[in-house]
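ingest -> validate -> predict -> emit
validate: passed (alphabet ok, no gaps, 410 aa)
predict: started
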Amino acid sequence: MKLRFLGSGREVGRSAVLVDDRLLLDYGMLAGDPPRYPLDAPAPEAVVVSHGHLDHAGLVPALLAGEARPPIHWTPPTRDLARVLARDTLKLRGGTYDCPFTEAELRRLGEVSHTHSYDESFEPISGYEVTFRDAGHIPGSAHVVVDDGRTRLLYTGDFHTDDQRLLSGTTARPDADVVVCESTYSDVSHDPRSDVETRFADALRETVWNGGTVVVPAFAVGRTQEVLLICAAHDVDCYVDGMGARVTRQFLDRPEFLRDADALREAAAHARFVTNPGQRERIADQNTVIVTTSGMLSGGPAMTYVPAIRESPTNFVAMTGYQVEGTPGRELLDRGRAEFDGRVLPVSARVEAFDFSAHADREGLLTFLSAYRGARVLVNHGDRCEAFAAELRADGYDAGAPEVGQTVEV
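emit:
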């Protein structure tokens, strides 16, 4: 089996791994200005998508240009999310970069889409059996097992080993000869989730009590729903704005992929969803909590809310997700300022990051990989892939960290 890393090698984002020049695992983009895409223009016979985040599924429609019609295989939530992400990407056309696909290619997704449940084996192309296993990252996220009759490859996608309110952690440990493993938090130990939740809820309540407004930038997929559940559990009233509202409704249509669909349904009923953009300035003047996309401040209603509250130290920006280098969210955390609609603005409001990550931390990664001591481990999707691979080698693993563009024979 031959693996070519078209993206995510020694970096976070633009995941794309081509198997034997025939089967493509994921096809995503790296957020930033401008965004970065995988190398080359692959022409796979079939595509398998691990989950519906932009850095794994954001470019899938671009594979349907011209006469190309490779079948796309994913879980039902991943298919639904990919369509939402693609529609949102199309809205950005005419902004800071050209959209890498068109409306026509987006429509073609329905023609080539094939959905599969967890633990259901299927043959995307002749000679390859693929099985999805629950990865515990976001609804519909999957470990991808590829078996060509000689080698069993486990492509982990993104995964979490601990429980979240939205999902249970992954317990899947499928047999594999080779593991392509994400490593986003390979040097981080997550604090106990209950402690983070308490600090978060207390900070929100304190800000509102003191007359301030809280903006919670959150990823539309997974994080908005997790924050909704946390707010409901801690009796924190909130508004919800942006694409997260639509994604929440989609998740509720797929209750079998949730840990507790009733809890999410109650949390959504407890929140107030913003339906008119004209409401935003008025809402920003209230003593309230606003959960809104974009989680990295790279677009969405957050571009209205954060500038509106930035001048007062009484206000609060509560970051809830990983901030990729080069994004406004990372700039705000590191330097106390960020670019909004072409203007770099200082932010006097308090800014704090809360670790609600849906990725396994160092202990989770090591616990997961302990089932694969006899396998070859290829570390990807992280800021310190080489260092983590070296640590694994020192512990007796056959581990490496391929670069973008590198081909590995396994």
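Residues 2-187+358-409 form a domain with the Metallo-beta-lactamase; Chain A fold (CATH 3.60.15.10).
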